[in-house]
């Protein structure tokens, strides 16, 4: 057994995206204790920078010590109590996973289905809310990583609030890549990832809860089934004015990495990051269309950071992705679920969203598809 | 907001221990995709090396993508079904946490209490098993991180099996630091940490399940309440011969770090690592006794990697630890729970278990205590 030296790839799949060398080096800094006063100071800066990234003043804003899937589970495990009726919108893999969360936690999932690759229909959600006046929560994905479609968060939150429901929103792929305004849009509970448009390593998951969501979690009738994810306990370590009581050992070096990624976000400016993702999307889209490769999602609903395209007729999915990886060290994503074998997912996220990557990707595609 | 440059500490608390520079540098290697063929190869090596570290041939041996507390929850969430009676041994903080896990999952916890700082009484467990012939599981901590006491795993597992119970064993602090033989001792389900005697970064948790434990988890009547920790799903990504189906995005760089730590363990040899921890413990113990500082745990039950000592009469806990940290950059651990304010915990774990650290620690103590 020998040390592992990974190949040097360009990551243009659905995440992880290329991690910036500054973030990689930050992770290599010497580990200190998770209760060290110097570490506590870094935690405070991280929380403040996450509030900026989320555009929120929510006090409960922090990274969960596990990947985005655990961020999702943090929201559901804390907010869903057995018997709670939850409207779950499904227009891709991650909506399906939300339903699985609700069911396992003893909730009653009312599914609103939309076609994969389309935005969530606000009208259908309105109907579901009318049909289920006892619903307590509405859960949906802002940026569906499996399809590249984005939905109208603001409209869905307004609607949910008219029916006195709490919203849980998945923004794993949107955070720092396209417009996202937690407070202005009225999102109650949100989770995201670090390995997409923040260009940090995978492994932790920023979350944020507003007062309405906190009220539900602090007034539960039975404890959260997960000790590890129970925010009532976690906040003893991460919370404002908390005594930094030991709950679990924080992933110290991973948090160094997130902190550095957030420093870089503040340097670039959030709106500049959104604009960069958008401009690069336009350039990639033009190039793909010139090659005769069509986007799956209709204009207006497209995510700039995740471009899902139909695999052209007669082109071999596996062979093409293998050629990109082996001959160009370029990773793109396969289709998931209903779209497996039919689409590719081309990410332009965070540090991967750069002109040179678009150029490489288009040139490599041209070489392979013209064979 | 600026880049965070941590102070350079010597970590002699209950973990994290000093992370070896080789592990830090491994984490800084370029991120690749969690489905990249090169990454899959590294995963296989990591599983094999964890089997070596655990001394097991269990096929289900892998790191959970979250800290040790989530490793604990992985064992309980997968193996405890609502209504299951579980004998839980409590002789410190982590036994208490086990009970909390059982209760939140709908299990019925039968507590066997022992004094903090003492080993678990095999006789009391025998009595509890006789009193509860319908018990399904026995859970206990091998190496109590809150007290520094170790218990007789082999005897407890034999006893549990006589009563047809499955064992769940916490070895967060023992793995790679003192003798641990999963197969020889008959452990059914085990979890550990990376940030103790493996000297890797905190954030992931190795687990291993034998055939008996797997049988229970694959024959559950209701699904695991946690989607994220459900091993029936996780094994689609990590399992032998699995299709490497996407479950969650693996913490790629953290896994680089664990891989490197395991390379170093194979270089040193597991039994040599155990012997090093033991020799360094004897040296520290002698030095502490020369300073008039007494160990809490009685000889025979002491963990070599975690030395819990009584705070001498008239000595200020907080002021002493602050002086060690501020004047010597040396971190030791405070007491937890019942032992808060009464003891210190001095770790000699992994890369921290070195002669120069013992020398520094003893000299610093001498300077401070003689004031």
List the helices and strands and how they pair.
The structure is a homodimer of 371-residue chains.
Chain A: E1 10-12, H1 21-27, H2 37-54, E2 60-64, H3 68-79, E3 85-90, H4 93-104, E4 108-113, H5 122-131, E5 137-141, H6 153-162, E6 166-170, H7 182-185, E7 189-191, E8 205-209, H8 211-218, H9 231-238, H10 252-268, H11 270-290, E9 306-310, H12 317-328, E10 330-334, E11 343-347, H13 355-369
Parallel strand pairs in A: 1-10, 3-4, 3-5, 5-6, 6-7
Antiparallel strand pairs in A: 2-8, 7-8, 9-11, 10-11
Helix pairs in contact in A: 1-10, 2-10, 5-6, 11-13, 12-13
Beta strand % of chain A: 5-15%
At CATH's second level, what is the architecture of the largest domain in chain A?
Answer: 3-Layer(aba) Sandwich
Biggest interface goes to: A-B, 80 and 81 residues
End-to-end separation of chain A in angstroms reads: 40 Å
Q: Mind telling me the C-alpha Rg of chain A?
A: 21 Å
Mean pLDDT of chain A equals 97
Just give the CATH class of the largest domain in chain A: Alpha Beta
Count of distinct structural domains of chain A: 2
Q: List how many beta strands of chain A DSSP finds.
A: 11
- The proportion of residues forming helix of chain A, as a percent range, comes to 40-55%
The poorly predicted ranges of chain A are none
- Please state the structural category of chain A: alpha/beta
Largest sheet of chain A: 7 strands, mixed
CATH topology of the largest domain in chain A: Aspartate Aminotransferase, domain 2
- Inertia-based shape of chain A: globular
Our count of helices of chain A gives 13
In the sheet with the most strands of chain A, the strands line up as 2-8-7-6-5-3-4
CATH superfamily of the largest domain in chain A: Type I PLP-dependent aspartate aminotransferase-like (Major domain)
Which quaternary structure do these chains form?
homodimer
The succession of helices and strands of chain A, N to C, reads: EHHEHEHEHEHEHEEHHHHEHEEH
């Amino acid at each position: 057994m020998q040390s592992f030296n990974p190949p040097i790839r360009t990551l243009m799949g659905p995440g992880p995206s290329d991690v910036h060398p500054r973030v990689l080096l930050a992770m290599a800094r010497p580990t200190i204790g998770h209760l060290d006063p110097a570490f506590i100071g870094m935690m405070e800066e991280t929380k403040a920078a996450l509030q900026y990234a989320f555009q929120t003043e929510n006090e409960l804003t922090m990274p969960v010590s596990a990947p985005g899937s655990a961020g999702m589970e943090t929201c559901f495990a804390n907010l869903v109590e057995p018997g709670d009726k939850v409207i779950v919108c499904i227009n891709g893999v991650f909506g399906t996973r939300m339903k699985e969360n609700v069911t396992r936690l003893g909730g009653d999932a009312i599914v609103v289905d939309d076609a994969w690759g389309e935005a969530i229909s606000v009208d259908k959600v309105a109907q579901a809310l009318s049909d289920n006046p006892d619903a307590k929560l509405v859960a949906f994905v802002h940026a569906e990583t499996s399809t590249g479609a984005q939905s109208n968060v603001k409209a869905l939150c307004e609607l949910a609030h008219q029916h006195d429901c709490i919203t849980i929103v998945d923004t794993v792929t949107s955070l720092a890549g396209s417009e996202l305004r937690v407070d202005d849009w009225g999102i109650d509970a949100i989770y995201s990832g670090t390995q997409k448009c923040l260009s940090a390593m995978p492994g932790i998951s920023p979350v944020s809860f507003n007062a309405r969501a906190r009220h539900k979690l602090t007034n539960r009738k039975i404890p959260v089934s997960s000790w590890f994810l129970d925010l009532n306990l976690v906040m003893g370590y991460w919370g404002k004015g908390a005594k930094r009581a030991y709950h679990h050992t924080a992933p110290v070096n991973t948090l160094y990495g997130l902190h550095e990624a957030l420093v870089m976000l503040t340097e670039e400016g959030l709106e500049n990051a959104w604009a960069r993702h958008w401009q690069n999307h336009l350039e990639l889209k033009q190039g793909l269309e010139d090659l005769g490769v069509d986007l799956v999602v209709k204009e207006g609903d497209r995510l700039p950071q995740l471009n899902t395209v139909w695999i052209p007729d007669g082109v071999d999915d596996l062979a093409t992705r293998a050629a990109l990886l082996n001959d160009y060290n370029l990773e793109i994503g396969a289709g998931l679920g209903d779209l497996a074998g039919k689409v590719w997912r081309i990410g332009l996220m965070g540090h991967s969203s750069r002109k040179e990557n678009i150029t490489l990707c288009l040139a490599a595609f041209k070489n392979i598809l013209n064979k």
